[in-house]
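just leaving the lab so this will be short. what follows is a protein written twice so to speak, once as letters and once as structure tokens for the fold. can you read through it and tell me how you think this chain folds. anything you notice is useful, everything is just below:
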Amino acid sequence: MQRVTFDLDVLRSFVTGMELGSFAKAADRLGRSTSAVSAQLKKLEEQAATPIFRKSGRGLALTEAGETMLGYARRLLDLNDEAAAAIHDVELEGWIRLGLQEDFGEAVLPDVLGRFARAHPRVKIEARIARSHELAERVMSGSLDIALAWHNGDTLPYSQHVADVQMRWIGPAKRIENGLRDGEPLPLVAFEAPCLLRTVATETLDRAGLPWRMAFSSPSLGGIWAAVAAGLGLTIRTDIGLPASVKAIMPEIAGLPALPKMALFLHRRDAEIEPVAARLADILMEAARQALPESTRASETGLWAVA
């Protein structure tokens, strides 16, 4: 079998187009013509020796091979960019204060810290795990440099939209023999108030005319998972970082109302942040996107057009 060496410039055009939802936009961002990007995509399919795209209506969608290629392309570019940063920015020093929702603590933080520390060993990071309203307040007050948080209604001046993530009803992974009788209020498990997702759950049920009761409140996500796994009630989160003891429930099967999507944002303290914080923000954004469910990543890009 002939060994294939993929062109990183081609892969960057491919990944950028997927993330922006348009290869025309990718061409503009990368400073290339649309025809040049089209030629790159053709070259990518030739190197892969298999179709990467398929027609879908007026646009393009990924084939199964294309989805596989996208995952590897992101990893190759991440490693390339990490190597470049390690070589050119090895002298970066400083202190960064990072904030994250608890959902992303296990799913994102280890990868982010590991990648950043390898490239910039002389930079110190202080990470804080908190809820969206606290993270927003700390960014506004200047006690955090960057924060990844659900949009809680507050408008922050320096924020970047990451994705709109589908909320899910979450129940125990194992079947619990204490099913809800007709007319009984739905038992809910949630963070202690104030909590953005707690409000979403109760308001969604109220609009659907379904009675509910707060069966369990916890100050930590670990407590939420334990209560749901024990069958004390349902909660709402996303597919990100779900432990094996719980699972997402299809609302139409359980007779529950559909839930909205939640906007995920990266907040920055200032319009122009220090180079070390900017580098960490780039790594955090990429890691967050990789942690998103496949369905969310697909919906973020949708159908792609070359022109």
